[in-house]
Amino acid sequence: MEKLTLTVEGMTCGHCEARVTKALAEVSGVKSAVVSLDEGTATVEFEKGQVTEDALIDAVEEAGYEVA
């Protein structure tokens, strides 16, 4: 199991937080995603070798947010 924390820009409310959480959770191989609006982060646990950092970044960006 791997853990990665991304800095997410553009979240302004709880709905944004939920949208990023959903986008990350839908990536195949992701076991959990904890998104913090206050900290501007998304911490993702995923199966090693099944998920790439680029796939996680793409999911966040497709949801309409930026990864710093």
UniProtKB/TrEMBL annotation:
Residues 2-68 form the HMA domain. It comes from Listeria farberi. Coiled coil: none annotated. This is Copper chaperone CopZ. InterPro entries: Cu-bd, Heavy-metal-associated_CS, HMA_Cu_ion-bd, HMA_dom, HMA_dom_sf. One of its GO terms (biological process) is copper ion transport. One of its GO terms (molecular function) is copper ion binding. Keywords: Copper, Metal-binding. The keyword Metal-binding applies. NCBIfam families: copper ion binding protein (TIGR00003). Signal peptide: none annotated.
